[in-house]
Design goal:
Shape of chain B: globular
Number of domains of chain B: 3
CATH superfamily of the largest domain in chain B: FAD/NAD(P)-binding domain
CATH superfamily of the largest domain in chain A: Alpha-helical ferredoxin
Oligomer: heterodimer
Radius of gyration of chain A: 20 Å
Number of strands of chain A: 7
Number of helices of chain A: 9
Structural class of chain A: alpha+beta
CATH architecture of the largest domain in chain B: 3-Layer(bba) Sandwich
Largest interface: A-B, 59 and 60 residues
Chain lengths: 234, 597
Amino acid sequence: MQVTIKIFRYNPEQDQKPSYRTYTLEALETDRVLDLLEMVKGHQDGTLSFRRSCAHGICGSDAMRINGMNRLACKTLVRDIGAKITVEPILGLTVIKDLIVDMGPFFEHYRSVLPYLINDEPEPEKERLQSAEERERFDDTTKCILCACCTTACPSFWGSDQYVGPAAIVAAHRFIFDSRDRGASERLKILNEVFGVYRCHTVFNCTLACPRDIQITKAIGEVKAAISSGSFKF
Amino acid sequence: MKTHEYEVLVVGAGGAGLMAGLYASRTAKTAVISKLYPTRSHTGTAQGGIGAALGNEEEDHPEWHTFDSVKGSDYLGDQDAIEFMCFEAIPAIYELEHMGLPFDRTKDGKIAQRPFGGHTNNVTGKPVRRACHAADRTGHMILQTLYQQCIKNQVTFFDEYQVIDLLLENGAAAGVVAIELATGELHVFRAKAVILATGGHGRIWEITSNAYAFTGDGIAIALRRGVPAEDMEFFQFHPTGIYKLGILITEAVRGEGGVLINGKGERFMEKYAPKVKDLASRDVISRAIYTEIREGRGVGGGNYVYLDVRPESVNHYAAIDGRRNPDGSPYTVRGEEVIARLPDIVDFCRVYLGVDPVTQMMPVQPTAHYTMGGIPTNKYGEVVIDDHNTVLPGLYAAGEVACVSIHGANRLGTNSLLDLVVFGKHAGLRAAEFAKGADFQALPGDPTEFARTQFDRIRNADGKENVFDISREMKHEMFEDMGIFRNAEGMQRALDKVRELQERLGHVHVKDNGKIFNMELMNAWELSNLLYLAEVTTVSALARRESRGGHSREDFPKRDDQEWLKHTLAWVRPDGTIDLKYKPVVITKYPPKERTY
């Protein structure tokens, strides 16, 4: 089938401002948008630049706005979105070139919530015990691949890039609700700040955008509840 | 040109690189550079589990793990290194758990374990539960956990810096040259010790489970500087990739009771591996699938078979096999358990195939998966550069880029993640220790000269050829003639084609002449690495006149321990010719015997 793909283009070494260019391709219904980008790069315009690696939705490199929705290019098939496709960089982060944005601030927010197990108690000789139920409690938020689809779909983040954003809160949730962790108070203190969880106005864009189907808004709600219920001291 | 100075420099930020970075940074000034953000590394795509004889579910011993790995390697693995890894596995898993890795749990709260191909109870010969898992995203959880620990321990990262050259002076490591992708600027990283942890090169083949990033940069830069590559003819084809796409469907599907079904609706693995059937080693199963396809028993006569994990099928065959739970009750599964244990597999099938594995069978074919060969090292990660295992001071390698050799001619499932964690750690420790007692080597007068030469050759080519086409032709030819079954005629055809493509790469057209994220230039350079490694792989394979593990020759169908119980070492000379030498396999407790499952 014939597909037209309109792509946001910007090369800071040549262009005064961004523009859109449209390419026509022969494609299959089962082709991924990533395959289309590779075809454009391979045969129509080698200067087209984008990030990609695993090509099946695990590494998180190729988050883009595809027909207005944040998605992974490798996990979006032509049959999902039809033959008229628009691809743009994710919003709220500085565009460096074409579909490549500066991920620095995103990872900075991730690092700010202490995204690692905190537990200074002496380690047992073998594993720490954890029941299957305790493990299940934070399962959903362990799936995050840090693609930034959620954070860059969030109007609060568009409004202020100082907001830690959904992905960072997901990372915090993964540890706050891990029975082995002792750092919940520290994290909740950070998330109780002015650019913390209360910037979330439950728009649900993050949940819709997540390519891993994480219930992000629910997770943010649980973090808010943990702060307001006083169940953790901080 | 910017110059940086670190005592230890790690190249690559997957499982091995992060582990090396964590351990080296405890005592030495360390940096980790990677062409990807660390969490994008290919370790994250590993699914089913990491092997260790914890015995949490049933009786198991590191000695059994050792023997299974030796047998899995078709006796080409070095037994001292394998034993070292399998004993280190147990503390390594506990360490990962202490770091916070969210393993699945048993009823009594311990780390849960599942069966995997080639892992057996050495007394009964039946599959044993040895693979420690976090659903079917074990690699993802290892990568995340190690990166989190690096943040906690303030390890220094240079993200999106791609290595281009290895600097050696006075026969020792002096550093590396890397390109900062965001600016196109070359940086010199001067270091007392360099650890290469750049992964494999499965993008040589058409149907592959490997990431775009898997272009063998680490092996290529080492080969260009005179370091040999070991056992390159041994490359693993995983039996179950998604048809046409190659996306991995974990062996854990069969660990949970899934079976392979041919076009006639028959479970065929019992013909090829009567004892463990669908849980035989990967090389055995990939050959079985190809044999079924060749003999006209693919689905609809085509080149794929089905993987069936529908609960009614699992329960049917589990009853026939007499499979039991650890508590002795008959083994059964329900649809929701399949979804809970294999959520990502269910997701992949729904997204890419429109197939629901709980109610439909999955179309699968073998997919290029894992580089058993690589840069020769000893069990401390030190690179050894000849048939006497002479150490190259200051150079280390760990993970898929390295060949210790623990995987020999065929890697067992779950041993790759183990390899990363165990040898990443030891390479980091050893490199830091070395750096404490060593001085920096002098840098050459113009350290980036060779890197610039390589880029200039691509930029200044006359522009008749297309990178995308050359890449596609390479992948197609290598899959046809350097795949699961090989013969002299086909391999020669592959070699001729690869050399033709190398020549054509010299005439390539790169339109992008910018500096910022010039991915077209980088892709062309990566293709030069892939073609280079395809050539070394094929030359090594042509010379080995036997069948062993992943190297299966129709013209030499038997293993030949008399002649070929030895490792291949391949050097590329400055004029481009490839020299082969051999070194003995280390055999300690397990004399080679016939390999059946």
